[in-house]
Specification:
Blueprint lengths: L10 H8 L3 H23 L4 H17 L1 H14 L3 E5 L2 H15 L3 E4 L3 H5 L2 H7 L3 E4 L2 H8 L16 H15 L11 H18 L2 E4 L3 E3 L4 E6 L3 H7 L3 E7 L3 E2 L5 H12 L7 E6 L6 E7 L3 H5 L15 H5 L1 H6 L10 H12 L15 H5 L9 H5 L6 H11 L4 H14 L2 H13 L13 H4 L12 H8 L5
Parallel strand pairs: 1-10, 2-3, 2-4, 4-7, 5-8, 7-10
Antiparallel strand pairs: 5-6, 6-9
Helix pairs in contact: 3-12, 9-10, 16-19
The protein binds iron/sulfur cluster (SF4).
The site of iron/sulfur cluster has 15 residues, from helix 14.
């Protein structure tokens, strides 16, 4: 999978198709409502949630302001602990580094811990081109991989699938990737989990190379931290002889003590749990293990340069904004055409790729229509901002990006004309009088590109007399 799913039309086209899928809407509604309820309950338990949220925001902002310094500190600490640090400016460089590291081991199979950074750069596909098969070990990622599908949620990538669909995927596809599913597999959660467990266990025990991401990196100690719920991450991190971690440069925290804040914010905001089930930390290379850290930029320093947009780099990928978003709940994650769906995807993807120029992520397509349409994939209701544990003002960034997005010529001309009219009261008064005379000829539906606007909105009636003229005539008297 590449940074943006290739060939995807702009968001409105994807959304229109998605809302017609009633099964998808049912699955999404059920899942997001459940997670929303759990999150609200555990967040409500903490009287100091507001202070925690402010602390998370402040730590992230401080880190981003001093990112250059902390990254060098991290590199030094990881190297001191026996690891090797590689710097990747973009997806192609990161993929090349990882592929060469795997090839150096002589292995052709690797296991993976769930990692959004590696999905962002299309690592599995890049490895496949060089004859290396990557096996996903997170249950939901396994379902997505076996189903030849795309993830549609940050935390629950297979949220669009229900139990019976998962059973069919396991029965049809598991054997192609390793141990087959039992013939009599039912759609009971316990049976599905057991089939996945047995399938994955073989993979863990036979793999010599693992690839992970990380939720956090600690600059002062060189420690990486992975939070997960199934224990698959711990198997990947400890069993193989070579561990390669691909991590975005914004995942940094200055001090070990900073984890205290995020280990409270993240589980409550993501899975609705008080404490994360499996939290693995490692510093450099363990005995008998080789450790490589690939630090990924891939557009992040461009995001950092934008004073409004840079707050998106505070994101800890909890997915709370997805679960409260009325747009996401109706259209699902695939409509966003990116590994980062929902409100955070609507502000992060266009910034990482850039909306007004051909980027490596646009793969020669020129300006990405999909990326440019994402800032409009929102009702601006503000629920995402309220839910975000690091207080990212997503609506503010959406409006900021809308202003930066390429606009059609007709819209630019209309805005220029409006600016000229509103610039002088006398021009506005004349235009209002002129409009009042022509009011009977105003169509109910605009022609050309404006039709998309009036398909879902009524053009307001133009009054026969403007407020100014009425005031001049009556001096405000209603008698
Ligand atoms: S933007 Fe905020 S709520 Fe959304 S995934 Fe990131 S941290 Fe979570």
């Amino acid at each position: 999978m590449s940074g943006t799913f290739l060939g995807m039309p702009a968001f409105p086209g994807n959304a229109a198709a998605a809302v017609r899928d009633s099964q998808l809407r049912f699955n999404l509604h059920k899942a997001t409502r459940t997670i929303r309820g759990k999150r609200a309950a555990v967040v409500g338990e903490l009287p100091d949630w507001g202070e925690l949220r402010a602390a998370g925001k402040e730590i992230k902002d401080h880190t981003l302001r001093n990112l250059d310094r902390y990254l060098l500190q991290l590199e030094e600490a990881v190297t001191r602990a026996g690891g090797r640090v590689h710097w990747a400016a973009d997806a192609a460089e990161a993929n090349r580094i990882v592929a060469e590291l795997v090839e150096a081991t002589g292995e052709t199979k690797v296991v993976k811990v769930k990692s959004m950074a590696t999905q962002e750069i299309g690592l599995n596909e890049a490895l496949a081109e060089r004859g290396v098969t990557a096996y996903e070990t997170d249950l939901a990622e396994l379902i997505v991989q076996l189903g030849d599908d795309w993830p549609s949620h940050i935390l629950v990538p297979a949220i669009h699938r229900n139990r019976s669909e998962i059973r069919e995927i396991f029965r049809e596809k598991m054997a192609e990737w390793g141990r087959a599913a039992p013939e009599d597999l039912t759609d009971e959660p316990r049976a599905l989990a057991e089939a996945a467990r047995l399938h994955l266990r073989e993979r863990f025990l036979s793999s010599k190379v693992a690839i992970s991401g990380a939720n956090f990196m600690i600059a002062e100690t060189g420690t990486l931290v992975v939070l997960e719920s199934e224990g698959n991450g711990r198997m990947c991190l400890t069993l193989p002889e070579t561990l390669i971690s691909v991590v975005g440069i914004e995942k940094l925290l200055p001090r070990w003590q900073d984890l205290e804040v995020f280990l409270q914010l993240l589980p409550r905001s993501s899975t609705g749990e008080r404490m994360n089930p499996y939290t693995s930390t490692w510093t450099g290379a363990a005995e008998g293990q080789e450790f490589h850290l690939v630090l990924l930029d891939n557009g992040r320093t461009d995001v950092l340069a934008d004073e409004v947009g840079r707050q998106a780099l505070r994101c800890i990928r909890c997915s709370a904004c997805l679960n409260v978003c009325p747009v996401y709940e109706r259209v699902g994650g695939h409509a966003y055409g990116s590994v980062y769906p929902g409100p955070i995807g609507a502000i992060l993807t266009p910034q990482l790729h850039g909306m007004t120029r051909a980027t490596p992520a646009s793969h020669g397509r020129g300006i990405s229509e999909l990326d440019a349409s994402l800032p409009y994939a929102s009702s601006l209701c503000g629920a995402c901002f309220e839910a975000c544990p690091v207080a990212i003002d997503i609506p503010e960034v959406l409006v900021h990006l809308r202003a930066k997005a390429p606009h059609p010529r007709s819209e630019r001309l209309a805005m220029r004309a409006a600016g000229w009219i509103f610039d002088r009261p006398v021009r506005l008064a004349r235009t209002q009088r002129f409009g009042g005379r022509l009011r009977r000829f105003v169509p109910g539906r605009l022609p050309g590109p404006g039709a998309a606007w009036t398909d879902t909105r009524d053009i307001p009636d133009i009054p026969a007399e403007s407020f100014r003229d009425w005031w001049d005539r009556t001096e405000g008297s209603t008698r």
